[in-house]
Amino acid sequence: MEVKIGVQQSPRELVLESAQTPAEVEQAVTDALAKDGVLTLTDEKGRKVIIPIAKVAYVEIAEATHRPFGFTTR
After folding, report:
1. Which InterPro entries match (predicted)?
2. 44, part of any domain
3. In DSSP terms, which residues pair with 48 in a beta bridge?
4. How many CB atoms lie within 10 A of CB 6?
5. Is residue 28 included in any domain, yes or no?
């Protein structure tokens, strides 16, 4: 699943592929907002991304799409 996080005062967004479900990511964002703390997410390789929730502008949660590769016929 792809997660895009917009950070205030930053021209680029953070993009990570996460093995977490959309519900788990949404719960992590909701919990961080309630506690006014940090948002912690884990990517597919087990790396953690920690962002102060006060700097988060938006979080976009999208299901992974499988793109065709190689030579395909349509």
Report:
1. DUF3107
2. yes
3. 42
4. 14
5. yes
